[in-house]
Amino acid sequence: MEFYAELNELLANTQKSEQAVRKQAEADIKRLRDENPKKFLATLTKEVADEGNNESVRMLAAVIFKNFVANRGGDSRYQDYWVGLDGVFKSNIKEAMLANLASPSNILRSQVANAIATIAKIEIPRREWLELIPNLCTNAGHENLDFKNAALQTLGYICEELKPDDINDQLKNTIILALTSNISSNPALVKTTHLSVKAFFQALPFAHQNFQVHQEREYIVNKLFEAFNIDDEDIRIIAMQTLVEIAREEYDSVEFFFEQVTQITAAAARGEDEKLGAQAIEFWTSLAEEESRRMRKGGNAKGYINQQCQALIQLLIECIQRVAIEDENEEDDELGVATASGCCLAAVALVIGNIIMQPVIHFVSQNVQSPEWKKRYSALIALGAITEGPEKMKYIEVILPGLPNLVSMFQDPNAKVREVIAWVMSKICEHHSEVFTQDRQTLVHVIPVFAQSVQDRPRISNQICRAIEYLAVSTSAQNDNPLSPYFSTLFQILITNAYRVDGDHTQVDLTLASFSALTALSENAGDEVNDQMYAMLLPVLQLLEKTITSDVAQYGEKRAKDIQDYLNGLLQIILVKVGHKLDDQTAGNIVKLLIMIFQSLKKVTENGLIALSGLINGFGERLNVNEFGLYIVWALQGDDDECVRLACGLVSDLAGALRENISRYLSDFVPHLLKILRDQNQDRKSKLHAIIALGDLSMNSGEIFSQQYLPDVLKLLESAAQQSLTIAGQVDDDYELAGYLVQLRETLVECYTSIVHGVTEAPTKSTLVKFAPNILAFLQQLVQPGLAPKKEHFKTILGLIGDMASCVGPHIKDLLRQPFIERLIIHLQNDVDPETQGIAQWALEQIKLSLQAQ
Q: From which residue to which does any coiled coil extend (predicted)?
C-alpha cells in the first residue's frame, strides 16, 4: 500500500493553538484526500494503528476515516466510494481496524468501534462482512476484559447503525445473548456491565422475537432488573431508559413482568436520584401514550394504566411536589421528577378520563392556597396537566366555582407561581374556552387581568399571549364575538408587547407569541369591530415602514426581518377584512410600501406577497395591477418555491377580483405559468398552484384565453393527466409521491371544471370539443376502484361531466353515452345525501338535453 508521509504532521497540526496553522492543515488534509482517496484511507488506517503516535492523532485519524467512509460531508464524488473499492484492499483495512480494538486506550477503542460500525452499515445490508457480528459476539465472551469491552461497544454501535431487517434472526439472537449475558451485579465488572446495558439499549429493536418467547423474555428482563442493583448511576439510568423503550416497543410483553416493573419504577421515582426518578416516571408516560394511541385507533390496549390507576396517581401527586428549583428566576428543571410527573399526569388523564379528577382536584384544593410557594406551584402544575382527558362538562363544572381564586393568583408574589397560573389559563383556553365565554361577565373580570399580566415577566407574558390566541380561535364561529368589547385594548397591548426587549436573552420569543395572538385575534374578529380594525391599519403600516428604516439599527437585522414578516401577515388579515373601506390613495400607498420592502431586500418576499394577497382580496377590482404586476411576474420566475406558489395564488386572486378585466394581463402571466408546468425541475406543489391559476384565468377571461392559450393549456393538462395515472401504479412505498398524485388528479379536475365554465361564456368551443375524448377518458380512470375514489371525488367528477354536457354536449353525444357515466349517476342517485342526489340529477338532466339536441 502507498501512504502519505506528511499526513501524520498535518493531523497533529490541526490541534495546534494557532488558527492559521490549523486552517492550513485542514486544507492540506482535504487536498490529500482528493488527490488519491484510496491512498488517503490507507494512510489514515496506518496512523490509527501506529502505537507510536500521540493518542489524539490516532483518534483524529479514526474520526476522519469514519466520516470519509460514511461521506458525512455529502460530497457526491465520494457517494458509495467504499462500495467501489477492491475487495482485497477493503479486507486489509478492516483487519487493521479490528486489530485496533485491542488497544489499551478506552477512548481510541471507542472511535475505532465507531469506524467499524460505519463500514458494517454499508456492507452488512449488502450481505458482506457477515462474519463480523459472530466474531464480535465470540469476543464478548473473552476472558480479556479489554477484548470483551471493545466487542460489546462495537456491537452497540453496529446496532445503532443497522436496521433489524438488515440481519437474520439467528444473528439477532446471538447479539442479544452476547449483550445481556454480560450484565452483572459483580462490582468488578461495572465497566463491562455499563457497556453491555448501553449496547442493549441500542439493540432493543433487534430483540422483538426474543420478547415473544417466554424463557428468552424472562432472561432478558431479569438481567435488566439486575442492573438496578448496581451501585452506578449511569447504569441504572440507561437500564431505566431501556425499560421506557420496552414500554413503547414491546408494550404487549409488559404484562409478563408488570408487577416487578411497578415496584422498580415506584422505588426509583421515590428515590433521591432525580434523573433516575424522572426516567422511572417516563416509563409510565410511555405506557399511557401507547394505550391512548391504541384506544384512539381501536387497538388492543392491555389496560395497564387502569390496573395501577390509584397507586400511580398517588405516586405522581407525591412526586410532583418535589420541585427542584429554589429561586423564582431559575428555569424549570425539565429533567426533574416534578416536571416528569406533570407530563405523566397529562398522559394518564387521556387514558382514564374523569377518574383522574377527584384525586387531583383534592390535591389542588389542599395546596393551591398554601403559604409555601412550591406547594402552590405543584398544585397548579397538576391542575394544568389534566385539562385534556376528562369530559368537557365535568371539567368545566369543577373549574368554574374556583375560577375567581385562580384568577387572583396572577397577583401571587412569586413569579414562578404567576408563570404556572398563566400556563394553566392557556391550557383552559385551549381546551375549555367555555369556562370564560359562556358567561360574558367572566370576561369582564378576566380580560383586564390578562391585559395586565401580559406585561409581566417574559415567560408569563408568553403564556398569556397563548391564552389570548386560544380564546380568539375558539370564538371564530360566533356571530356576536365575546371578545369584541376588548378588541382594541388587546390589539394595542399585544402590538406593544411584540416590541419588548427583556425577553431577548431568554428562551421565550415574545415577538412571535404576541403576533400569533394578534393574528388569531384579528382573523377571528367579528364584523362588529371592522371600524376598530380599520383604525389599526395606519399604525400597522407605520410600523411596517419602520422595518425598512429604523428597526434594523434598533433591533438588529434578524429581529427587524421577523417583525416585518409578522406585520405583513397581520396586514394581510386586516386588508381581507376591511380592505373594501380603503380609498384609492391609501391602497396605492400600501402598494408603494410593499414595493419599497421588495426593493430594500432586493427580492420579492413571501410575506410581502401575502400582504399583497390581502390587498387584492380586500380592495378588489379597483386595484391598479400595473403598479405591482411586475413583482408577481418576478416571483413566478424566481427559484423560491414558496414565492412561486404565492405568486400563482395572487394570479388566481386577481382573476377573481378583476373578472373579465384580467384578460388585459394574460400575456403577462400565462407564459410564466406554462413554463412552470413544462419545467422538469420545478417543485411539484408549485405546479399544482400553477394549474389552479390557469383554470381561474380561463374561467374569468373567456374568449381571449380560449383563442390564445387554451390549446397549449389543454395539451399540458392532458400530459399531466397521463402522468398522474401512469405513475400511480409505480409509487410502492413512496407515500409523498402517492399523496402528490392524488392532489394532482384532484387539481386537474378542478382546473378542467374552471376551463369548462370559461368556455361556456366564449362563442367558440371547438378546442374543448377536440380535447373532450381525452378528458372523459381521464375521468373514467379516476372512478376506477384501483384509485380508491371517495364520494367527494365522485361528486366533482360527475359535476364536471354535467358541465361539459351543458357546454358542448351536442358535440360529444357518443362520449356522454359511455356506461361509466350511467353507473356513476346511478351510484350517486342512491346516496342518502340530498346534495349528492341533486348533483346526480342535475348531471343527468344536462346529458339528456344534450342527447336530445339536434
A: 4-35
